[in-house]
Amino acid sequence: MESDSDSDASHISATPPGSPSPTAAGPPPLERRGILLSSAKSRTKTSASTSTTSRTILQPKISKKHSKPPPKSDRVEPKPLNTSPILSNLPFQIKKSTIPTDKNAPVGLLHGGHCASKFASFSRAQDKILNFEPDNAVEMKTEISVESAGFKEAVKDEVDGKGFTVKKVRKNLNLIGGSSSDLLTVKKAKCVNEGNFVKLNINGYGRKKFKYMNKRKGFSSSNRRHKYFRASKGTVRGGGEENGVFDEEGLVVDIRKGQDKLSFQAELIEEAVMRVRNEASDDNLLKLLKLTHGYDSFRDGQLEAIKMVLSGKSTMLILPTGAGKSLCYQLPALVLPGITLVVSPLVALMIDQLRQLPPAIQGGLLCSSQTAEEALETLRLLQEGALKVLFVSPERFLNAEFISIFSGASLLSLVVVDEAHCVSEWSHNFRPSYMRLRASLLRGRLNAGCILAMTATATNRTLCDVMRALEIPPTNLIQSTKLRDNLHLSVSISANRTKDLIALLKSSPFLNIKSIIVYCKFQSETDMISKYLCDNNISAKSYHSGIPAKDRSRVQDLFCSNKIRVVVATVAFGMGLDKSDVGAVIHYSLPESLEEYVQEIGRAGRDGRLSYCHLLFDDTTYFKLRSLMHSDGVDEYAVNKLLCQIFMSERPTIEEIYSMVKESASRKFDMKEEVILTILTQLELGEVQYIHLLPQMNVTCTLNFHQTSPSTIAARDIVIAEILKKSEMKDGQYIFNIPFVANSIGMLALDLSNHLESLKLKGEITYELKDQAFCYTILEVPKDICSLAGQLTKWLGEVETCKVRKIDAVFNAATFAAKVCDNAFGCLKDHHTPCLQRTILEYFNSDGDADVPIKMDQNSRFLQADIKVFLQSNAHAKFTPRAVARILHGLASPAFPSATWSRTHFWGRYVHIDFRAVMEATKQELISFVGKDVT
Ligand SMILES: Nc1ncnc2c1ncn2[C@@H]1O[C@H](COP(=O)(O)OP(=O)(O)OP(=O)(O)O)[C@@H](O)[C@H]1O
């Protein structure tokens, strides 16, 4: 089976090799400071300046009335080492990197989120370095056109079966816009590629930004010292593209195309803000909306959400894709006194959201692709109070220094959790790093005044989870219909999908549609299909995250300017896409869940016009994709082994940092890296806090000496002396594990890295870092590792089952429409909008975990015999039942890569048999094969 899918089910969080947080490295090693006096001194010095300076500078900007007492923390965070005098006035330490790439960056540098790329798909994850923020698309901004009329009827409270008071919001009922003729008329923004230049200081672009930055008339709703900046055309690093900015993969994101002439009037906006502060009435809010965004009316749910947030009530907001959720934090950000922190899962989404901020709202972002300078610049602006909105990834919360910016003062008025479904393991797109986002962190440690959680798709179970984690009361749920009614849904079973796709595109209504997205699951499929379409005189291009960023950007441009009719894409397509007239979405592959289906069809018809969504499906693809849902599965045996390694140390101290190299651990335990991260995160955030997870870093250092002999330096330098003792020599180079050496002399790994960096600057040494690793300190060793392994495996097994049920639900919905529906709900031929809408709404209103009848076979005559032959012919290898089942399902895993195992003719042979049935059959066979019980 191919494994090049741009799956969004794989979630990795990685903290940059170059950005381990000094504070995250565990509590201060008090008695050890004497060992490296210089480090200890500078650390102490910085620590004093860090928090105090930050608070002194930031506090005056924030209204005292919202201030809360500093949170009690039972952990003392170590302080950073200060080696950069330029930065000494910052509330946190950032050191300028002398090495441009993350890969080579010294561990001691805090790069504001430096890290190499993270790749969504399993195959790519194996051979590329993981990224701080994931780059795979989960959602795409779309826009729907909802006319306003009749606000009075717009909100209706209903208590649903779960006890939530659901504020149902009906479409087209908003009166506000209609009665706004007396409002100030402001030239409406024509392009969403608007916003504030300072926000886009990403990679090379940021280097030149000040050249283009014209300070405009100072304005702030709360403080006149806030500045507006306006972008002019920028030059990207490498000089290739204009008006662009690179993300961590060099993705070119167009900015400021079609320069906007929007003139906002600072004084008027400031007055409007003051009026809203005095009274957040519909009328005052509408006037502000018109001034800041140029819109005539609020869309469904927006006004209500904004009022809720302004009144300090944490809110759960569920609006369809493109319905305008961003506005629900943008306006409050302007009105509220403090900073609005937006947590977003993808760099591309952050850039997109930043770009879409209206000029009146100053924004910035901290992401993996920034250089230290760029992150520093964002932090400086934050420090100066020049930013109202800051976008960050959830991984940022691993960084204790980042957290310390906000703790102890009420700087944060609002924390927005975008794509909030990622918090829940029962969602279609769970991310372990989102688990960190809990009320205890956001309210308790960051002192956030209010939390706004937003998503377009969530089942009841997911919703409950998210609201529980963020402590949002059931009464504060705002939800509108999940589906737009301008989407015409059709389904057909296809024995030859490629042929049927061509036929579809050459027949009505698709024949006359100018912009079409065809969604495939696998990257190779997109290339193959687009070529096939071109061969059939249909202009098409493929788009997936394996394509170089520049080329992807070009495809998007061509599509947006209607120069190509069809984009054949994986789920990766949609990042930053701003095209309202996509007339059709065709699913060439079955989506993994109804949530994914709803999001992808939501990219059609953003202009409100009738648009067409067709789903082609067949059993074979369903079997393949269903197999993939098992790729994150784990066995108790492997979890046990992993736990033993994590808690290997007999007497751990909380100062000691442990590291686990991601790639080798993944192979050793036959677990995807993101699964290991999920387990580690659970060990930190579960009922008992066993570990404290730290930002990831490169732990293997290869050291070369240049000027002075190693022994001479070692005689005067305790760190080098220890390195020499603990190193392995290879080709004249010293190779050692940074945390291991640091622990042995009782210093922080970061201090050690900083020390190496200072020797490097003196020309004494050069070094290279590699092996990105999970890093943690141990707080408590579990008393019973076996029972903990059992609990974790059970939980992960339920998550695996949940994923399988999700794809079963899509398949069943499609099968029902294609085979069973029989026009019962008003459907006609291929047209199945009524029955599909019904199924989808039922699904979202359920817990999404009901057992659905499945089509899979449970056995085959030859299965047992084939397993026997397979085991005999591979007697040299060690198998678990899961490993064998994966091979028989054609599913690659870290220890059994497809490059090796797809050569066996059993590869993928039993994909049509339920995975668990294959596992069970293998288990029986292994018992008789090795003559003992296996798990
Ligand atoms: N009240 C409004 N009137 C007109 N246009 C609006 C209004 N609110 C939002 N929009 C526009 O709708 C588009 C989609 O908004 P936005 O990106 O906030 O959607 P979203 O709900 O966040 O979508 P997604 O689920 O993809 O994140 C944007 O172009 C935005 O400017």
Description of the molecule:
Helix 22 (710-716) packs across helix 23, helix 24 (738-744) packs across helix 25 (749-761) and helix 26 packs antiparallel against helix 27. A 9-stranded mixed beta sheet has the order 1-2-13-7-12-11-8-10-9, sandwiched between helices. Strands 14-19-18-15-17-16 form a 6-stranded parallel beta sheet, with helices on both faces. It is α/β, with parallel strands linked by helices and 935 residues long. Helix 12 links the parallel strand 11 (412-417) and strand 12 (450-455). The two termini are 25 Å apart. Residues 1-262 have low confidence and may be disordered. The longest helix is centred in the last third of the chain and has 36 residues, at 785-820. 36% of the residues lie in helices and 13% in strands. Bound molecules: adenosine-5'-triphosphate. Adenosine-5'-triphosphate is lined by residues 139-143, 192, 295, 297-299, 302, 319, 321-327, 456. Adenosine-5'-triphosphate binds at residues 139-143, 192, 295, 297-299, 302, 319, 321-327, 456.
SSE order and pairing:
Elements: H1 37-58, H2 122-127, E1 155-159, E2 165-169, H3 203-207, H4 209-212, E3 214-215, E4 229-230, E5 244-246, E6 252-254, H5 266-278, H6 282-293, H7 302-310, E7 315-318, H8 327-335, E8 339-343, H9 347-355, E9 363-366, H10 372-383, E10 389-392, H11 400-406, E11 412-417, H12 439-445, E12 450-455, H13 460-469, E13 477-480, E14 487-493, H14 497-505, E15 516-519, H15 523-535, E16 540-543, H16 549-560, E17 566-569, E18 584-587, H17 594-601, E19 611-617, H18 619-628, H19 636-646, E20 658-661, H20 662-669, H21 673-685, E21 691-705, H22 710-716, H23 718-726, E22 728-730, E23 733-737, H24 738-744, H25 749-761, E24 765-778, H26 785-820, H27 833-845, H28 863-873, H29 881-888, H30 898-901, H31 915-930
Parallel strand pairs: 2-13, 7-12, 7-13, 8-10, 8-11, 9-10, 11-12, 14-19, 15-17, 15-18, 16-17, 18-19
Antiparallel strand pairs: 1-2, 3-4, 5-6, 20-24, 21-23, 21-24, 22-23
Bound molecules: adenosine-5'-triphosphate.
Adenosine-5'-triphosphate (ATP) binds at residues 139-143, 192, 295, 297-299, 302, 319, 321-327, 456.
Biased composition (Pro residues): 17-29
Catalytic activity: Couples ATP hydrolysis with the unwinding of duplex DNA by translocating in the 3'-5' direction
Keywords: ATP-binding, DNA-binding, Helicase, Hydrolase, Nucleotide-binding
